[in-house]
Amino acid sequence: MTATVENVANALELEHVESHLHPEPSYDLAAHPVPSGLEEIWRFTPLKRLRGLFDGAASDAHLSWENDLPEGVTLGELSTEEAKALSVSAPFDRLGALAVANAGGAVLLDIPANAELDRPVRLTMRGDAADTLVWGHVVIRVGAHAKATVLVDHVGSATYDAFTQVVVGDGAKLDLVSLNDWEDDAVHAEQINLRAGRDSEVRVFEFSLGGDLVRTSLNVDYAGPGGSVDLLGVYFADAGQHIEHRQFVDHTAPKTRSNVEYKGALQGQDAHTVWIGNVLIRKVAEGIETFEQNDNLVLTDGAKADSVPNLEIETGDIAGAGHASTTGRFDDQHLFYLQSRGIEETEARRLVVHGFFNDIIRRIGVEDLQERLISAIEDELATVVGRLES
Amino acid sequence: MSTLEIKNLHVSVETDDGAKEILRGVDLTIKSGEVHAIMGPNGSGKSTLAYSIAGHPKYTVTDGEVLLDGENILELTVDERARAGLFLAMQYPVEVPGVSVANFLRTAKTAIDGEAPKLRTWVKDVNSALERVTLDPTFAQRSVNEGFSGGEKKRHEIAQLELLNPKFAVLDETDSGLDIDALRVVSEGVNRYTSQGDRGLLLITHYTRILQYIQPDYVHVFVAGKLAESGGRELAEQLESEGYDKYVKAAAAL
Ligand SMILES: Nc1ncnc2c1ncn2[C@@H]1O[C@H](COP(=O)(O)OP(=O)(O)OP(=O)(O)O)[C@@H](O)[C@H]1O
Ligand SMILES: [Mg+2]
Predict the structure, then answer these.
(1) CA distance linking residue A174 with residue A25, whole number of Å
(2) What region does A122 belong to: left with phi over 0, alpha with psi -120 to 50, or beta?
(3) Which of A260, A282, A314, B151 could form a disulfide with B182 if both were Cys (CB 3.0 to 4.6 A apart)?
(4) A347, B111: Cβ pair inside 8 Å?
(5) Is B96's CB within 8 Å of A343's CB?
(6) Residue B173 CA: which ligand 1 atom is closest?
(7) Contact at 8 Å (CB) between B167 and B32?
(8) Whose CA is nearest to atom 3 of ligand 1?
């Protein structure tokens, strides 16, 4: 395959780092055998609930897209080969490779160099039914020194597996918001591979509220020094839901920065969330800074939060590196303080949960989306907090 | 005219070795219009008394009652006690991340009054309450107590005291950790509150310093979980020169 050759040509020249935490990227399906479920990258995922995605059955069904594109922004198409040739990591797992192999080409969102968008790009992707199998391949290309906010809204239902490539040019500023607001029966697996240009500033927000199973893996590396990436997430799992967010930040260049913050709440029997934060600091990546944090608020019995931060360090020269993970119930002190000012217990709990999430939500800077998220959380809470005993 | 009566209050906390009694029969009556100061050494149980009145879940009342105008508030939840007219300014105010001061104050005011405050005047009320305790109006947008300095937390408690205007306030070492300017600001806030004439105050303190600014009607010495002596202002002066030694020794001899 010629594409393989191009990939190699485009790949960052890096030493190989052997690790069970992040497999070798490849477009080749044979490089990613069907998992048994025991593998490090699959062991938290209930494979049976992926509805046969691993069979890789052909489907030409699509999500229906509603697009709101500011001036200068275009939607086009790329052939699979053209997409593979882009300077972004190949898929790290079989689901990513399957999406590319089966999607039959990619949708390209192109934000030209130096563009400063006056409003966010909005893409709403709607699925019509849970048993509709959809393969997705999306490319988001942000030209050098462009400044853009891109909102991707997933609604309706589907069995959807997607591979998304994000190429961020030198000096560009990108806010990418992915909202997983599916109906209860959707299955959504997505791999987002992003390469941050020299001195670029990227923030990726992931919000996962709906769906029977949502599993995203977000893989970031750097095309040059000075890139800064924030990965921010909020998730809320109800009874029976499986919500899994994985990040792999590969510090492939010196003086780069990464900051990962995910916050989740869980309620109801068998609500399950997974957060895996992997950070690799390569030998070349001197003077980098990284921090990752995951906090989980367990609102009822029967819910389970898995949270695993991993930091692999190959260089001795680091400006700062750390991680933290907390999983807990309501803090009695918070509730006592609020109640001691006359605020009823249920209201106090609501304030605490909103406060917990607000920290991330308020950073989006898109008013209507912030309001929508706050009210979505309000709806989630209404189902259970009112009935909670302390 | 209201009365807060603490009668034979016994309180214990759970420890690894079982329940440990901290309050051993506290009797104290406060009427509206009165300022009571409670002074005592570290660990004597002053905060325990304050938290028990407010209903903190860590403390178990094993005997006695606390009556607000004849009603035993020990049967009420924490928020019900606050709505009944009690306020506790805490020794260590709690940080509540992500909840803005503005939102917190409006929610509390709405809960206490039973109706939302008038939007038009409320923002002004909040800003001037903050200003009176020399907190910048930008504090309204910050998370409750988060990253506040020790002194800012205490001043924030006093701003709440003024905005919520309870029948009875318990101030637990609000003076500790304040520099002389902050102490004056806090004392002025407390005096504005008491000068309404129909409010009761229980001022818990470790030092006589604040009593130069706030004039108590009664001073109580608190040692080993109960009141050891009660008197007027002159008792504070005596404590200033003699310390708690005499009382601690007497309590230990029991
Ligand atoms: N969980 C606990 N286990 C054991 N002892 C406890 C516990 N909580 C409180 N105590 C003890 O109860 C006693 C009273 O504490 P309290 O905080 O009420 O004292 P205080 O008079 O407010 O002291 P300070 O002047 O230092 O504020 C102390 O001896 C303290 O160590
Ligand atoms: Mg104390």
Answers:
(1) 24
(2) beta
(3) B151
(4) yes
(5) no
(6) 27
(7) yes
(8) B15
Q: What DSSP line would sit under A280-332, residue for residue?
A: EE-TT-TTEEEEEEEEEEE-STT-EEEEEEEEEE--S-EEEEEEEEEEE---H
Q: Is A354 on the interface with B (CB under 8 A)?
A: yes
CA of B46 to the centre of ligand 2 (A): 5
Whole-angstrom Cα distance, residue B90 to residue B47? Answer: 8
Q: Which residues in chain A are contacts of B87 at CB distance < 8 A?
A: 340-341
Packing angle, helices A332-339 and A345-361, rounded to 10 = 120
CB B99 within 8 A of CB A355: yes
Show the DSSP H helices in B114-217 as ranges: 119-132, 150-164, 180-194
- Per-domain residue ranges of chain A: 2-329, 331-390
Report residue B229's pLDDT band, with 50, 70 and 90 as the boundaries.
Answer: very high
- What interface predicted TM-score (ipTM) does this complex get? 0.97
Token pair in block for residue B2? 């209201």
Distance CA B231, CA B234 (A): 7
A352 chain-B contacts, CB cut-off 8 A: 96, 98-99
Cβ within 8 Å, pair A342-B99: no
Rounded to whole angstroms, the Cα distance separating A204 from A179 reads: 11
| B99 touches A at CB < 8 Å | yes
Residue-range domains of chain B with CATH: 3-253 (3.40.50.300)
Name A7's Cβ contacts closer than 8 Å, sequence gap at least 6.
A27, A84, A85, A90
Task: Give the pLDDT band (50/70/90) at residue A12.
Answer: low
Which residue's alpha carbon is nearest to atom 9 within ligand 1? B13
Burial A220-232 (b: 16+ CB within 10 A, else e): bbbbbbbbbbbbb
The 10s digit of each residue's pLDDT in B171-208 is: 999 999 899 999 999 999 999 999 999 999 999 998 88
A244-269 pLDDT, tens digit each: 999 999 999 999 999 999 999 999 99
Query: Ligand 1: which atom is nearest the Cα of residue B40?
Result: 21
Mutation for testing the B interface, residue in A335, A336, A345 having most B CBs under 10 Å: A336
Mean pLDDT within A221-233: 98
How much is the pTM? 0.84
HSE, side-chain direction, 13 A CA sphere, residue A130: 14
Average confidence (pLDDT) over A321-340: 94
B138 pocket-lining for ligand 1 (C-beta < 6 Å): no
Task: Tell me which residue in B77, B97, B160 faces A341 most closely, judged by beta carbons.
Answer: B160
> Given CB atoms, is B102 within the 8 Å cutoff of chain A?
no
In tens, the pLDDT along A264-311 reads 999 999 999 999 999 999 999 999 999 999 999 999 999 999 999 999
Residues B138-162 have pLDDT tens digits of 999 999 999 999 999 999 999 999 9
Largest pairwise CA distance in chain A: 69
Two tokens, residue A168: 């961020």
**How many A/B residue pairs have CB atoms within 8 Å?**
82
CB contact, 8 Å: B164 with chain A? Answer: yes
Given CA atoms B49, B55, B56, B60 in this order, what sign does their dihedral have?
positive
Burial class (CB in 10 A: 0-12, 13-18, 19+), B206: middle
Secondary element (H or E) of residue A141:
strand A121-142
